[in-house]
Amino acid sequence: MRILSVASGQWPVVSPPTVPPRSGRMDRPRVTSHLLLLICLALYACGEESPQKKVRPGAAMDAEVLFTRGTALASEGRHTEAIDAYRQAAALAPKSAKIHYNLGNAYARQLDYPSAMTAYQRVLALDSTHVSARHNLAAMYVKQLNYAQAIDEHRRVLALDPGHLTTYYDLGYIYFLRGEYGEVETLLQAGLDRDSTNASFYRLLGRTRLKELDFERAAATLKRAVELDSTDAAAYVDLAQVELKRREYAAAERAARRAIALDSLSKEAYFALANALKRLGRREESTEVLEQFRALDQQLDKIDDQLRMLGNAPDDHEARAQLGLLYTEQSRLTEAAEAYRLAVRLAPDSLRYRNNLGNLYLRLGQFAEAVAEYQAALALDPGYVKAHYNLGQAYMRLQRFDEALTSLAEARRLEPEDAETHYFLGLLHARAGDYAKAAEVLAVAVAARPDWLDARQKLAVAYLKSGKVEESKRELAAIQQMKESKQHE
Amino acid sequence: MLNFFLLLLLLSLPLYVNPRFHDATQEAGIDFVHVNGANGQKFVIETVGPGGGFFDYDGDGRLDIYLINGAAVPGTEYDPAPQNALYHNRGDGTFADVTEYAGVGDTGYGMGCAVGDTDNDGDLDLYVTNFGANVLYRNEGDGTFADVTVAAQVGDEGWGASAAFADIDRDGFVDLYVGNYHNFSYTNHRVCAEGGSGLQLYCGPEAFDGVTDVLYRNEGDGTFADITTVAGLGSAEGKELGVVFGDVDLDGDPDLYLANDKTLNFLYLNDGTGHFADEALLAGVAYNEDGDVEAGMGVDMGDYDNDGDPDLFVTNFQWETNTLYKNLGDGSFVDETFLAGLGKGSIAYLSWGTRFFDVDNDGDRDLFIANGHLESDVEQYENATFPQRNQLFLNVGDGRFEEYAEDGGALSLKRVSRGAAFGDYDDDGDIDVLVANVAAEPTLMRNDGASGHWVRLRLEGRDSNRAGIGTRVEVTSGGQVQTDEVRSGASYLSQSDMQLHFGLGTATSIERVVVYWPSGRVEEYEDLGVNQEHLLVEGAAR
Question: Using a CB-CB distance cutoff of 8 angstroms, which residues of chain B are in contact with residue A179?
């Protein structure tokens, strides 16, 4: 158990206990993160089918309710639960294309591509003109590196709906990955004929022209892209790359910095910035930025590997948990919670998964859900001390102080030496006005961690309030000494 | 006037644009067939080898051929066990299998080879990397070899990929670097199904953990010592496939560049004492120009732009480009792949063995790339092919290459190629190519197309190591200066002829040759004849 920050006089903020990382099993490389971007773009671009306003009678009504629930859950990133709702809805209304379509999207977001493909194919069996399902099916083929089939499906989408703008981009991107730049140019020009203000078309077109060494046109195209969408970090990265090729290093630096400001996780932006700084002769700055790039690359690389791994084995609960851990490290808590939710679904007896999911709920402010996970863990193992401790934290956030006290007391019984448990028990006793008891447990916390300034301060207050003035003075003197010592250091 | 413009037009065209490779394998009597044991279980070792080599093992002045073989995997049996093969060059364009007599028929699951004169006795010794214990064959000087692996203490049991000899501490004895791929074993074997496609495919490198490579210091008494960690090379982060030594910073000692599969590449700079520090990230050769790691396979180092410093080339996976890093001469490199015309043309191929060499003897270094997919099922899920044609990119000057392809001839063959070795086996003044193919016979590509003048230099050290490995040479001819360095290993799992070959174009004389020996000695030669081989012995320059 670890406390990140405890502000004096405030209820503490508790971070989720860290879980020691296991060496994960990982899968094929071979595709760049661009592919992951592609599928995300594809799925998000098509969006979800919305619930109908009118509610039909009987089973259909129940299906509609379930569909609505699934859509709401999916919008919160809770795809595991959304899938449950959609599947129940599909059982009640098996010929509903929209249910199967949303089910496919939920599976795809969980990286369960085979199930997603089945769902999309079901949609197409019901409605062969459903362009969004066909489009997303193409995205699934990309995940399988089956570019040829993906191209076929995208071409069918355009035949059905020449105005399906996303497909111009996604199909163009496949051709870009294959180095078929002429095809990219043709497709994007066709897309721009239909929507001349589509920034993503300009971005990919500019990138293509960069690879074709047409730097002046690439620069102009990318500048148009950022004019149309000044929040597109990727376009700024590409612009920085073009400026590097044009030896306009100051402009490259500006573009890269803008990209980083828009997306602090854009490793490509850091890389371009480092190159610009190096060419500008600012070696030390370049080195610093490269180090930032490297750290980010390592983090993102692990996530990419894990996503690929899950693409191959969506039922691997440990891989799901590892992904959750990686997202947690990047503070991508919603995605982390979703990864752990599925890990729990796949391995419901895992104390670690449930505890970590609870911790994520805690950090997301979903305290009731956190309580439920900790309680589920304790039902499996009443002696699981971390869950008692964290349950205490969750109860504190819910202001259910009596239950918090009970949980932390149990944690103390199981792990009598733990400083943090005593500290929080102290706070709870103090809040209840029992300063003597508060002083008693805070003293244990201080004995365990004598350098814990905040615990000492609270102990001094508890002594004072319980009438132990001399003890309080002694603590205050110790605190003063610690402060002076720190200043001296 | 018209004639004048025609002349200008002709002058603007690159010289000798018609190299032609002839598949001479059968007529040369090379009847070797590689096996990889594949039986559908998809053990990833089946995809990686083999390599091969050109080297003159018997000192008769003609290049012989060594070919690496695989072995059985669980569920496969061979009788007799497959073994590596040595072919002796008879001098008439044909070869004789002398494996048994020479005693180099290792039956391990072979990957690659490298040669060097480890005992400075004037003949070349042979190191074989395996999935399993590697083997060092000491050349006895009488056409036979002795397996001295145990005595020399170089039998690393990791999954050895490429290896190379270099005198890292310049003590006159070549040391040995072995790149180990990753920790695959039959017990952690698994198959992968990309994107849940249901196809059982070979797993990529992410499925396994990296392991440390090995640097063996030659103790000069027939033994080697593992100094990997103390030399600063103890990282287990990389998944090495390609290994090349060369003096990238021109400070007189061999540096080390490693091509890693889906982990960043390493550039270890030598501090002159045999201690290394990785500077790849700062030098700009760890990632490609977009900041992406690539699936580094083969690697070479060569001065393609004739500016005096060695550049780097790395081969990569399909849907990635191969990557050309131009040496800027200030400790940094820049990815010039697309500017050099090597980007788009390489995306559709999965690439392995490679080398900068002057295929047409016009005075600049061209590029050969061996290709072939690793997934025999690739056609089921992608419009790519398992066998692929190899590629030749001609250097057209100004730092640019153009692909040369032809119908017919060995360049148009589609094979599942891996290693590639380079040397003039028929002694006609141009460089031929030996390509090692998966589960098939190799391809001996005889170069019949070069027409420029040339010179070949054999370096023999005295204070420096006997094979002259690490010796850098500058050749000035026709007002142009070319540089190259004697290298062991490089390419992919393969050993090329260590003699230095320079195409001279129309120049009929060589103004000057400067030799920078690893010992620090610098020697100059003048007026060496063209279209011939010269033996340059350290300390013998007048």
Answer: 321, 343-344, 347-348
